[in-house]
């Protein structure tokens, strides 16, 4: 059986490239605009080295969804402290990219269209957050897929570093020396 492709596909390769370029430019501009306009404070939140006040609601909303089935919600403060420590050890360039990701997620102008979460992170349901994560994971835009992977890696890294997580996955801990 032979299948034939449509003569005029709905979205050509050139159209897809134009769309991807436009979306990437939009995201980069939004992140840069947030940084330059002062929407993203560069000062850390009280008690943190790197995490800012605008980053905390995002992380508080993501932790129970990304780390569902663990006791991460019960150890949220320790997890945030570990994440903060890890972010503080990043190179300046990587920290800047991570902050831009959080800025895009924090700004209402970009959060709604990109995540589907139109209200604040505090009011987002688990289903909305799961839909947002799935949307970014399956996105045709590499930038969104990288953002998804970064969020998951950051949270998993911070969680599995904590001794409270070790028993859950059967790890007895590092050998005693």
From TrEMBL:
Top-level division of the source organism's lineage: Bacteria
Cross-referenced InterPro entries: TAT_signal
PROSITE patterns per record: TAT
Name by which UniProt lists this protein: Twin-arginine translocation pathway signal protein
């Amino acid at each position: 059986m032979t299948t034939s492709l449509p003569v005029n596909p709905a979205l050509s390769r050139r159209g897809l490239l134009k769309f991807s370029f436009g979306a990437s430019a939009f995201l980069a501009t939004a992140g840069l605009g947030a940084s330059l306009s002062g929407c993203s404070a560069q000062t850390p939140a009280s008690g943190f080295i790197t995490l800012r006040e605008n980053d905390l609601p995002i992380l508080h909303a993501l932790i129970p969804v990304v780390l569902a089935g663990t006791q991460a919600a019960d150890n949220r403060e320790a997890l945030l402290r570990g994440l903060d420590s890890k972010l503080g050890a990043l190179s300046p360039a990587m920290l800047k990219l991570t902050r831009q990701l959080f800025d895009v997620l924090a700004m209402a102008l970009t959060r709604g269209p990109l995540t589907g979460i139109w209200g604040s992170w505090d009011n987002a349901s688990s289903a909305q957050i799961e839909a947002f994560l799935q949307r970014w994971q399956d996105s045709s835009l590499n930038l969104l897929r990288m953002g998804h992977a970064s969020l998951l890696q950051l949270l998993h890294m911070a969680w599995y570093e904590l001794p409270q997580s070790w028993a859950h996955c059967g790890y007895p801990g590092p050998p005693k020396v």
